């Protein structure tokens, strides 16, 4: 149930709505271009249950009147409007929680420093709109420092901002809008973002007038940015697939905005339309945090992301990666390699000292790292681990299901308990990890990546490897299915199939049906073979990194894996014959 | 071929080793940003000459920055590890950079061969590696006392590296040695050197290789089958060299293996040992 209001500023008449209980915390939403305040309808319906929610049409849009000329759209005038709305609708000088989208977000940043508004703002949630002062300030700073490396991301943003340049070309943008863009707008949003909106009568008029927002402000801010320190708590919601604003614009903000949390969201530009429930939930959480001091794992995660996203910090900066079996071999090498790309690390292993050592090494690389003891085959322990990462670290972004054990020996010698053990660790361990963390990644809607370490044994049958190969085949196939399921949630899934890697796994492999003494001998023989192959865990770690960064479905590591894979396709019969060769150490 | 009195012999080697470490410490204290490896090596040579050194087992080496990790060109192991990239080059020292100084002066007829690691200013990776090296220093005599073959001891070092998550970069040395035999040098001092290695010392090492081949042991102590023999009494210059990513650290000092099969370090009053003692007492205090 919302109540309409009007505010006279002397220059224009602003039209708005207020909804929700009077005593509740006040949230004020500012819409962007070429929208009007109806863009917030879904968010208001949700938030108004427990907040006083104010929306209004920016001058020149929706039901508000328009100023006379281009100068009327200067940020200074927009701030006067905002101040007037707050003054009229929020009694007793109380403070509001501001939320802005697109041009509304640009306004919001300005409101944090404008003398007319800044004392009335308790917190700010910004979606898809940078602070022009901070963005242009950073650009000119980088140019002054002549850091060539800073140029490519800057050019990327400029390419995405083609429309801003186009808006400055006389007559061009109005022509496009008139030629049909306004008419086609609902269809366009359906095509680009999968969003259903009803056609709006004022769309064309709003779009045409709003061009003045760009023309009245960009030149001035670009030539003379005035970056200042922001004192209010700010929550950045950054859509990953925004065609108009590059996520990189929001990097390097932590020094200017000390109270900053950031979340990257799997969404296009129109988050208020695409997922109003998510946006409302984030605002609700942030308001509770700022007003009531309530903290949670997600905010911890958000602060980390905001702090770590700096220029040159590596592509995984601020991401949290959990690696199982990280105490040795491929797991440890992967943890270190991920740390090298900026990711914070949770290293888990059944061996506490080994996990802690990996965490120590990751810290030496320059990231934050934690060590946890966990047996991946223990469902309860894995669930507790997942809860702990949620509560303390705010959830993880990258999961590497690496923990595994080796087992060799004839099928008929393999006892039930041998089968249980190898299935429990190699298959159930991966299932537990993918289930628990996959569900959390999906729920958080900020993407993620799951890597399952299988083996070349998954597609290279060999006598003496029935148990081990069965678990790895299962992992490989499961991974492919999971990849298909999680793809549209922005979660990548990769399988890694290493060949013979010198990791120390052979020192611990169980040779079934062998006495303790022959066991040792066989382990030593296998280890010698693996050492001679000399393919290192680091080589696998590099492939895992590439699989994550490029979202590759399968990575084969080592010539034997590549040839084996090829052979299995070209001549399955030959593959079967090779499986009969007895290669087991004697 | 030896200095007749065993106690005197040991004292001579210890004195040579002290001199070599004093040399490295003095030059390390003088390292400044912008200095090249060649300059550091030359300074060591000059300092040693000023202190009476006329002959070298090998002339001083210096490695800065990622060259301490023996990666890239310096890690190429063709030609059994004899690699021109070992030689001090034009790499300039920067603040926070790791460095290794390595020299092997001949003092009288005794040979020292030492390695000194550090960083210009603070480098947490070097600190960690120096702590890790002490574990290796404790491990080696313990393994020998436990009756392991020399190859097994070397493999135990490899295994400890694996547990520590560091690379055994001494594998990049000629013949992948963890250590090499050191003897009293025969004959007259020689001023000639071959690719920075002293002629008399090289000749002696060749003689030892031949002698070892006849008797079934190798003066080049590594993880291969060639070292699969019981510990050979005498002095060994042991040089575990650890690498983590692009940083490396090592020590090199003389280990005395006794006729009884026991082993002890020739001298415990060395910079890396003192550093660790200080660190341990600091940790205790904190």
Automatic annotation (TrEMBL), chain B:
<feature type="domain" description="Peptidase M24">
    <location>
        <begin position="12"/>
        <end position="171"/>
    </location>
</feature>
<keyword id="KW-0645">Protease</keyword>
<dbReference type="InterPro" id="IPR036005">
    <property type="entry name" value="Creatinase/aminopeptidase-like"/>
</dbReference>
<dbReference type="InterPro" id="IPR000994">
    <property type="entry name" value="Pept_M24"/>
</dbReference>
<keyword id="KW-0378">Hydrolase</keyword>
<dbReference type="Pfam" id="PF00557">
    <property type="entry name" value="Peptidase_M24"/>
</dbReference>
<dbReference type="GO" id="GO:0004177">
    <property type="term" value="F:aminopeptidase activity"/>
</dbReference>
<protein>
    <submittedName>
        <fullName>Xaa-Pro aminopeptidase</fullName>
    </submittedName>
</protein>
<keyword id="KW-0031">Aminopeptidase</keyword>
